[in-house]
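mind reviewing this stuff:

——
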Amino acid sequence: MKRSSILALAAVIGGLTLTGPSAQARPAPPSDLQQAAQAVVDSGPAGFLARVDSRKGTSTATAGLADRSTQRRLKNNDQYEAGSQTKTFVAVLVLQLVAEKKVALDAPIERYLPGVVPNGANITVRMLLQHTSGLFNYTNDSDFAVRPSTTRTRRSR
């Protein structure tokens, strides 16, 4: 066999070896966000869903169950009801706007939401953040009824 034939045969065999099962693409290791999601679920909660938007793009991670009764796993496009968590997020965003001098804590809320908040000319942003505005708590209304959701999570539409 000529030397060039042997080299060609070696190249073909080498190419087959490289494309065989050992060289197939392996799944990427879980991201730090995905590892954190799994760690949260491992500590007790049924499920965890996170989305991080940054200049580099959007990252999502899920772990655990969306529904314990059906054992349906969470998906990255599931939605959930944030409930009281929104108060903290809104406060952080408002304080960021205060730091940027786009909102003043002692300004009446009427300046930013004209006609939306009852007595808004006499209620400041600070009062709303501190829950000292005197606005009626609708959950104390006897006519207010919380209806349990039939599904714990809803898919995006």
Observations:
- The chain is about 30% helix and 15% strand.
